[in-house]
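Handoff note, outgoing to incoming analyst
You'll be picking up this chain. Sequence as last confirmed:
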Amino acid sequence: MSSQSWEGLAQLLAAEGFYVVAPNLLGHAWRRGTDYRVATLAEDLRPYFAMDMSYDVIISHSLGGLVTLPLLPFLPKTKETNVILVDPPLERTAEQFEKDKIRFLKEITDARTAEEHMAEHPPWSRGDSMLRALGVYMCDRTVVKGIFEHNEPYAFSGMLRDIPPHVKITLLMSDPEFGALCLLEHLPVDAARLHVKILNGVGHWIQYELPNAIMDEVPLPRAKL
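Most recent structure output, in case you need it:
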């Protein structure tokens, strides 16, 4: 629920020579708004794509993956950009949607400590667990309600049909047995330029549990090749 959830992966990227930019979405960290539609969250990030700004790789997790997709047409057409979507919840049934909303509201109301996160998720480091607890602390119920209420019905898989030709997408999916939010049946059968990998035994927070699975999909800077 804040860009600090990327701290561990950002350190790995920086060690490989990347300059890392990690913006907070509206509603994340202390940022607040009144409109939490995915389209609005994407529009808020448009300045990061102004004046033909280019990136070697764009990595986004969960809701961030949905926000990334409408921004892809603004990437420079003269350069191929690698985009890694980490378990984005492309589709949710009405029942799943309601359960997700209740679960997130409970998480805000009954915020867990870093120790409790570590006990529930043994692969998480203490640092990641602390940052997760901090992210929850900086959020509030109004934001959670807004994100759910402003994006109903919840159906975003169609955006994968419009991947620009200069964009290469890797979709990293968690294990359905470990709480994956992105499932194979959510993917459009006619989606092009889409590379899909399912990570067995890994839950939704891939950047905490198996960051090297993300790093394996990152093209190294030219100096490293």
